[in-house]
Every structure is written in C-alpha cells, then in structure tokens.
C-alpha cells in the first residue's frame, strides 16, 4: 500500500557552491493510499526537514521489528480516517560538513530558496496540490526544526503551518556550553583542518569518534551557515570563539546570534502573525536546553500576540521520531480547517 517515490532533482540554485556539494539531490515523496491526479479536491503538502547530518530519507528508514515505518503509519492513519490524505516531501538539505540549516549561504548555496522556491514549485508541477501556502506546511526536528521556524519567519509566502520539534534556539546556551569540548577535540587532532579531515575520513564518524568529536564538527559546520567567510580554509566561516581560551569573539558572535529564532522573532512579527498554525514541541529534558529555548520563544510569541501551541513530553533530544505521524496529522487537520 505504501507509496514513496524517490526522485533525482537537479537544482539550478545549488549548481555552483564553494563547498562542491552536489546540486542533484534525492527527493522522496510520500503519496497517500487514495492518491489520484483526478481527485476533485487537491492534496495538502507537508515538507519534513531532517536534523544536522541527516537527509529527508532518514525519516523513511525501517525502524525494525518493534516499530512501524513512518509511511506505513501514515497509510494506516489515513485508511482508518484518523487523518486526511496528504503528500509528504522529504528534501535533502545536507552539506559536506553536515547541514545547510536550510538558510541561504555564499558557502553552501541558497538552500532556503532551493526549498521554498525550486522544490515547492517542483512539487506543485508534478502532483495534485492546492498550489497555495494556505495548504502547505513544514515540520522539522532539531536543525530541521530551526529550518521550519526560519521558513515561518522568512518565507511565510510559501508556508502557513509550522511545527518545530526541538528546533535550534537560545544560542547563548546552545552554542556556548559545548565550546570546551570543541576546543579539546580540535586540539587533540592538531587543528581545525586535520580534525575535519579525520572526521570526514571516518567510515562512521557519528558512531566511532565519540560525542566530543560530533559536537566539535557540529559547531565548526555552523560557521559556513551563519558566519560564512570564503577566506577561511576548510570550514569557510568565522568561529565565534577563540580556539585557545574559549572567549566569545564579538563580531562573529553577533552574526551568529542574529540567526537565533529568539532574536529573529522581533524582526518578523507580521510573518509569524500570518501563520495559520505554529507549534513547538520538545522533550522536557533536552540536553541542549531546547525545551527551555522553546519556552522562551513561546513567551516572546505571546508578547507579540502570535497564536501558537507548545508541548513538552518526557525525554531528551532524540528518540522521538515516532511522534512525527501525529505531528503531520495535526498539521494537515489545521491546514484543512481554514
């Protein structure tokens, strides 16, 4: 019954980027059991964004004997009338160093435009959709949650529904508490370049090199997204802290903070007010403090009179992909409620 198609999408926008990342990207599309181009009512569309180091197809992995895959659960919920039929799109926002954060960067390429312009239009041309932001939403976890929030603030012309699952925010904690680990990992490798080279050469860096190396790579990769500088070797961006002392460096730190959703809200109030649906979810013991970041974000939204919902559940940062079908269902109900 499950129908997921994999396409190779050739992006004009990503064709030239200094990192040399591929511009031909795999895009997976879930179609509901009743999908028909001749159906009278078009289908709402949800874009599902993966976190750092992942691609959209990450959500499609077989979870094993004791769980059901996301497409199978969506099939079941649609067939049992627990949710309306919808199309779900799984983009690839990855880069050589981990993730694009779904933002436009002179280093990684215009990933926000790729998602919101090229992919949205590509989906509307190929499938039976409403071709309207009123029936289009985006959900993401972690870096993908940040990407969803950015879409809600910078591209509300394309999306009217946003769900952030532990989306990156509160950078004063998120990108400072791991500075010591980053310094230790880089120093042990003999510098940024040898560290990155060893990380990328590992057959399984996320599993073999330990959490310190993963945290270091995540921090280093953020520079190409938020503090890009083509003159800097390897990482192509300015670090926001001193690699010897850990001291915050004023100019790159300000540039990084400008991308914190907590700082972005005040600049994009009208976009956020235009949304038909805005939801924040996180584990109540998120080790990156993102549940606290969401609480702060919710407080700011409330001050601006922006409609939203916030929920916390037992758990840490990871291990909650089983919640995705429910998130998709809630968003699709909201999109169709008008």
Task: For this entry, give a set of tags.
338 residues, Rossmann fold, two-stranded antiparallel sheet, alpha/beta
Can you describe this structure?
Strands 1-2-4-3-7-8-9-10 form an eight-stranded mixed beta sheet, sandwiched between helices. A two-stranded antiparallel sheet has the order 5-6. The longest helix has 16 residues, at 111-126. The chain has helices spanning 70-79, 111-126, 143-154, 171-174, 179-189, 192-201, 205-208, 211-226, 250-257, 261-264, 269-273, 290-303, 324-337; strands spanning 3-10, 24-31, 45-49, 87-90, 104-105, 109-110, 136-141, 161-165, 277-283, 309-313. The model has no long low-confidence stretch (mean pLDDT 96). The protein folds into two domains: 3-169 and 260-337, Alpha/Beta hydrolase fold, catalytic domain (Rossmann fold), CATH 3.40.50.1820; 173-257, no CATH class. 38% of the residues lie in helices and 15% in strands. Helix 5 (179-189) packs across helix 8. It is an alpha/beta fold and 338 residues long. The two termini are 29 Å apart.
């Amino acid at each position: 019954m499950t129908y997921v198609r994999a396409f190779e999408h050739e992006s004009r926008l990503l064709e030239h980027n200094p990192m040399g990342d591929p511009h031909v990207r795999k895009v997976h599309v879930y179609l509901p059991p009743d999908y028909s181009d001749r159906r009278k009512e078009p289908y709402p569309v949800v874009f599902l964004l993966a976190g750092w180091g992942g691609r959209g197809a990450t959500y499609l992995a077989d979870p094993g004997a004791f769980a059901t895959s996301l497409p199978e659960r969506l099939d079941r919920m649609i067939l049992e009338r627990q949710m309306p039929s919808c199309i779900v799109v799984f983009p690839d926002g990855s880069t050589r160093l981990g993730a694009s954060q779904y933002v436009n960067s002179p280093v990684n390429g215009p990933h926000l435009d790729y998602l919101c312009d090229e992919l949205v239009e590509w989906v509307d041309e190929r499938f039976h959709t409403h071709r309207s932001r009123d029936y289009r939403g985006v959900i993401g976890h972690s870096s993908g949650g940040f990407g969803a929030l950015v879409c809600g603030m910078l591209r509300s012309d394309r999306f009217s529904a946003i769900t952030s699952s532990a989306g990156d925010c509160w950078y004063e904690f998120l990108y400072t508490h791991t500075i010591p680990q980053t310094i230790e990992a880089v120093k042990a490798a003999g510098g940024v370049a040898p560290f990155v080279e060893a990380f990328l050469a590992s057959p399984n860096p996320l599993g073999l090199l330990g959490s310190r190396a993963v945290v270091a790579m995540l921090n280093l990769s953020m520079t190409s997204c938020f503090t890009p500088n083509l003159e800097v070797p390897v990482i192509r961006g300015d670090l926001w802290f001193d690699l010897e002392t850990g001291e915050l460096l004023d100019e790159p730190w300000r540039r990084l903070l400008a991308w914190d959703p907590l700082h972005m809200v005040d600049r994009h109030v009208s976009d956020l007010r235009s949304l038909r649906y805005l939801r924040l979810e996180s584990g109540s013991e998120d080790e990156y403090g993102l549940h606290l970041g969401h609480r702060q974000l919710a407080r700011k939204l409330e001050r601006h009179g922006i409609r939203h919902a916030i929920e916390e559940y037992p758990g840490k940062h990871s291990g909650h992909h089983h919640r995705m079908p429910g998130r998709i269902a809630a968003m699709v109900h909201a999109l169709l409620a008008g």
